[in-house]
Amino acid sequence: MKNYQALKNSLRSMDNKIELGLKVFWQKMEDVFKDIASTKKIVRLKEKLIKSSISVNTNEKVSLGKKVKEILEKKREIEAEKILEVLRPKCIEFRRNKIIGDKMILNCAFLVDKSHARDFDDHVERLNKTSEDRLKFKYVGPIAPFNFVELNLKWGQQE
Q1: Which residues, given as ranges, of the chain have pLDDT below 70?
Q2: Rounded CA gap, 118 and 112, in Å?
Q3: Domain limits for position 69
Q4: Which of 43, 47, 77, 101 is the least buried, fewest Cβ under 10 Å from its Cβ?
């Protein structure tokens, strides 16, 4: 009986709600890396490596790679936050899912009231249009809100 009530409560809490998924990618990674390569930190590290090219060791190369990765992650977070600033007020809740690969900026599931779905769609479309030369949007939904329901069902003998 406990499982039944938990399931019923979870389903009831999702009445009139849908999940919309959004993945955002950089269009051209070469442009992103050109941007990163022109940052002061990277320019200085590259100049240092060039000056000491005779004795460039693996640690210095690794250091440069780590700095590039750090700047890429910071750049990704800034882009993601700009998108979330627009969409966060339009949803009930959102979940950030795992980022896969260097090109992906954002991987989110949004819980949206059905009556506000069109408004949410419009905002995604505007974001897409204003950044279509730099970013690629993959938008799916509506789907069942599985990212927002967690059931802990206990099987066996009930107390």
Answers
A1: 1-3, 5-7, 9-11, 13-14, 40, 42-61, 151-159
A2: 10
A3: 10-148
A4: 101
